[in-house]
Amino acid sequence: MYQQVAADLRQAITDGAYGSGGRLPAEGDLARRYGVSRGTVRQALAVLRAEGLVTSRRGTRRVVLGSEGTQSFGELLSFTRWARSIDEEPGGRVVSIERHPADATEREQLRLDPRATVYRMLRVRTLSDRPVMIERTVYPESVGALVAALDPDTVSHTVRLEEQGVMIADAHHTIDLVRADADDARLLGCRPGDPLLRERRRSTDPAGAPIEWSDDRYVPGTMAFTVHSSAATGSLARRRATPEDRDADAGPGQAPPPAR
Questions:
Q1: Could you tell me if 141 and 116 are in contact, meaning their C-beta atoms sit under 8 angstroms apart?
Q2: Torsion angle of C-alpha atoms 234, 236, 237, 242, degrees rounded to 10
Q3: pTM of the predicted model as reported, rounded to 2 decimal places
Q4: Which ranges carry the HTH gntR-type domain (predicted)?
Q5: Per the CB 3.0–4.6 Å rule, which of 46, 110, 122, 241 could disulfide with 245?
Q6: According to the model, what pLDDT value does residue 56 have?
Q7: What residue ranges define each of the domains in the chain, with the CATH number in brackets?
Q8: Residue 12 and residue 34 in contact, taking contact as beta carbons nearer than 8 Å
Q9: Mean pLDDT of the chain
């Protein structure tokens, strides 16, 4: 039902029924209109928020953002969706996925009890068969069990989890540089100590419960992130790296890292 509600609201937004910057009806009004519960309406709004169509602020009527010139939340969250948006063929190979007691950092990031267990996944992502990124993702046990049951050749874990009702509504990103360790070098074909672009991400569901904590490492020169901020909103977008990005990464007096 929430998918039907989301589809109807999406079409209305696309048709300009609410206008850019207009407000959607209140959750209670939408629930009465569609004959569903408020929980169903919130799920539908979470989908629209993930697509970058409405604001994410809870407790108020949602404001229509539109999608002109922006990258959807789904493309930013999902490597597969992003790769296909730039006409690349995404791929992935699960190196390992194992169940372990959660360590202190994992318990803090995923808000887990002291005796909780997690699933840790190591995965290589490719663009047109070229390794460009390593994912080290930690899942709470309930979500990790679903991921562990997927076919190892599954291209998009995000899409498969959505099909099973696991929706990601919000994500917090931290981006910095790290040096490649031995596993990074072996899996990406670089040298130990080479710089890698790192994105650490904690994702939560519509109720605010953490779904994943991930440490993703990219080969330099393959992609970049752009941040747009304003008094009204802020956005983060992933894109192909340009020669200018590679020059900037190199710093003064240094050769730019090779594009692999």
A1: yes
A2: 110
A3: 0.65
A4: 1-68
A5: 241
A6: 61
A7: 2-50 (no CATH), 73-250 (3.40.1410.10)
A8: no
A9: 82
242 vs 73: CA distance, rounded Å: 22
CA distance 166 to 253: 47
Query: What confidence tens digit (pLDDT) does each residue in 127-184 have?
Result: 888 999 999 999 999 999 999 999 888 888 988 898 898 988 888 889 999 999 999 9
3-state secondary structure of 57: coil
Can you tell me the distance from the alpha carbon of 78 to that of 197, in angstroms, rounded to the nearest whole number? 17
* Spans of the chain below 50 pLDDT: 67-71, 230-232, 250-260
DSSP secondary-structure letter at 21? T
CA of 253: how far to CAs of 116, 218, 247, 248, 250, in Å? 48, 23, 10, 11, 8
Q: What are the strands, taking DSSP E only, across the chain?
A: 90-101, 117-127, 130-140, 170-179, 195-204, 210-218, 223-229, 234-240
pLDDT at 87: 79
Contact (Cβ atoms closer than 8 angstroms) between residue 139 and residue 148: no
pLDDT at 259: 38
How far is the C-alpha of 53 from the C-alpha of 13, rounded, in Å? 8
| C-alpha–C-alpha distance, residues 99 and 76, integer Å | 27
Phi, psi of 234 (to 5 degrees): -140, 155
